[in-house]
């Protein structure tokens, strides 16, 4: 009972999906994390400022995302605290803001999509979804059903980026794969 009260979204799928949808519809920072940030325990990523390279620095990448979405970005002074709150408090992701004497301020536990933990291109890696984090798992759990948003995302990947789709499908458990293929075949195949 205590677990249901403390983390209801882990036990009530509709609540996690509602919370994720609400967050993604109202928060540009959450949208950016959902689209461009990967959970990676071994990583440290520089916060930087908006004049830093957007491929290597969190804030420059976030500003680029907001500009492409025609949304006003948070100021640099608010960005770090808001990102820390989103990751740790709202999503339960083990990411910490740390200052490195040589490299400056950054976050451990996350990295930008397309850059591996040592700053090299990583090929096709898709970011973790906010809905997965809200369900309490940052990788697909064997018994966690896929949300409608996960199904939609996989369908879009199938049509637009087959390499990323293949990698995402490999991450699914056998029951999740069956569930996905049942849902798309019931809907008339992948659109």
Q: Overview of this structure, please?
A:
The chain has 191 residues and is an alpha+beta fold. It has a 3-stranded antiparallel β-sheet. The protein folds into 2 domains: 2-139, Arc Repressor Mutant, subunit A; 142-191, no CATH class. Strand 2 and strand 3 (104-112) form a beta hairpin. 52% of the residues lie in helices and 13% in strands. The chain has 10 helices and 3 strands; from the N terminus they run ααααβααββαααα.
Helix content: 40-55%
CATH architecture of the largest domain: Orthogonal Bundle
Strand content range: 5-15%
Mean pLDDT across all amino acids: 76
Shape: elongated
Number of strands: 3
Sequence of strands across the biggest β-sheet: 1-3-2
Q: What are the low-pLDDT stretches, counting only 5+ consecutive residues below 50?
A: 8-13, 117-121, 137-142
Structural class: alpha+beta
Secondary structure blueprint with pairings:
Elements: H1 2-6, H2 8-11, H3 13-26, H4 28-36, E1 37-46, H5 58-68, H6 76-90, E2 96-100, E3 104-112, H7 130-134, H8 148-160, H9 162-171, H10 174-186
Antiparallel strand pairs: 1-3, 2-3
Please give a handful of descriptors for the protein shown.
alpha+beta, Arc Repressor Mutant, subunit A, three-stranded antiparallel sheet, 191 residues, elongated
């Amino acid at each position: 009972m205590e677990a249901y009260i403390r983390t209801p979204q882990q036990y009530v799928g509709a609540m996690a999906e509602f919370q994720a949808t609400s967050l993604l519809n109202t928060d540009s920072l959450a949208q950016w994390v959902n689209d461009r940030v990967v959970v990676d325990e071994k990583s440290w990523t520089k916060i930087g400022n908006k004049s830093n390279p957007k491929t290597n620095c969190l804030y420059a990448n976030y500003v680029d995302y907001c500009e492409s979405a025609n949304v006003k970005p948070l100021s640099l002074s608010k960005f770090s605290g808001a990102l820390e709150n989103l990751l740790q408090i709202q999503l339960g992701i083990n990411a910490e803001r740390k200052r490195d004497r040589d490299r400056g301020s950054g976050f451990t536990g996350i990295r930008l999509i397309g850059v591996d933990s040592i700053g090299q291109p990583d090929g096709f890696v898709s970011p973790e979804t906010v809905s997965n984090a809200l369900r309490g798992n940052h990788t697909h759990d064997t018994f966690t059903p896929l949300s409608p948003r996960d199904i939609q995302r996989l369908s879009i990947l199938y049509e637009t980026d087959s390499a990323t789709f293949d990698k995402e499908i490999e991450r699914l458990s056998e029951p999740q794969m069956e569930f996905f293929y049942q849902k798309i075949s019931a809907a008339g195949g992948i659109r």
